[in-house]
Specification:
This protein is of the alpha+beta class. It has two domains: 160 residues, Ribosomal Protein S5, domain 2 (2-Layer Sandwich), CATH 3.30.230; 110 residues, GHMP kinase, C-terminal domain (Alpha-Beta Plaits, 2-Layer Sandwich). The protein contains nine helices and ten strands.
């Protein structure tokens, strides 16, 4: 039996603009993904010589351990594409909040794809893994990259690696999750911006700290707006909902300032906070 221990990082979106909608209903976006210092832990092992099968355990988590789990689906797709008969065992220890817009499921799937490819002797190249990632979910290809940050276009799978300054963030996770599908389905496209030639610095500067999904989400969940206001009142340079929510992030200039804000929100508001930095 061969095994690997993996860390699957969370991500935040430093901006998220919706640029249009495809005929199949998928939205076209422009976003900035940033990996952060919050990880799920995955123990992955494979065994040869037996009938193939996938065994997934998620102890101490409400997460399902069946074929609907993205980590399970990633293993299934990998074995199919690589034409391998293996017994795959996945022990998944969740640390990333579920349904919080932090990409935990996508990161788990990407880690399983990369881990299985390594354990099997690299039968698939980067392009094949990217293709598998796209079929699992729009955020998965970003997590397949080694880079800590990338701009995403199209449905989020057309990636360009960029350098983003280091940041300290307070993540606030309210006691509810938000369906990504619901957020996008309820977003009303108000107009099409002309897409200029991609000058990373210029475009990112203009887009930073905007999230087009905030309006629709705050309309139904006003607590998101309140948390944003409180983070700014506590010294955040800016505050933003990550992805489709429900996590709100506050960006701080120093670890000390972030720590003070996180403590205040925990003590005075009883909110669940996490202090993280960009990778």
């Amino acid at each position: 039996m061969s095994s690997l221990s993996l860390l699957a990082p969370a991500k935040i979106n430093l901006f998220l603009l919706i640029k249009g909608r495809r005929p199949d209903g998928y939205h076209l976006i422009f976003t900035m993904f940033q990996k952060i210092s919050l990880w799920d832990e995955i123990d992955l092992s494979v065994e040869q010589g037996k009938k193939k099968g996938i065994y997934l355990e998620c102890p101490d988590s409400e997460l399902i351990s069946d074929p609907d789990n993205l980590a399970y689906q990633a293993a299934e797709l990998f074995l199919e594409k690589a034409g391998l008969d293996l017994v795959v065992k996945i022990l998944l220890k969740k640390r990333i909040p579920i349904g919080g817009g932090l990409g935990g499921g996508s990161s788990d799937a990407a880690s399983v794809l990369k881990g299985l490819n390594e354990l099997a002797g690299f039968p698939l190249n980067a392009a094949s893994l990217h293709s598998l990632g796209c079929s699992l979910g729009a955020d998965v290809p970003f997590f397949l990259l080694e880079a800590p940050a990338a701009a995403g276009r199209g449905v989020g799978t057309e990636l360009e690696v960029v350098n983003v300054p280091h940041g300290w963030y307070v993540l606030v996770y309210p006691d509810f999750s938000i369906s990504t599908r619901w957020a996008y389905e309820n977003y009303v496209l108000t107009g099409q911006d002309q897409d200029t030639i991609f000058d990373a610095g210029e475009v990112i500067q203009a887009a930073m700290w905007l999230n087009d999904l905030e309006k629709v989400v705050i309309g139904k969940y006003p607590e998101i707006g309140r948390i944003k206001d409180e983070l700014v009142a506590l010294g955040a340079e800016t505050a933003l909902m990550s992805g489709s929510g429900s996590t709100v992030l506050g960006a701080f200039l120093s670890q000390e300032a972030a720590n003070r804000a996180a403590s205040s929100l925990e003590v005075n508001r009883g909110l669940h906070t996490l202090l993280v930095e960009s990778l």
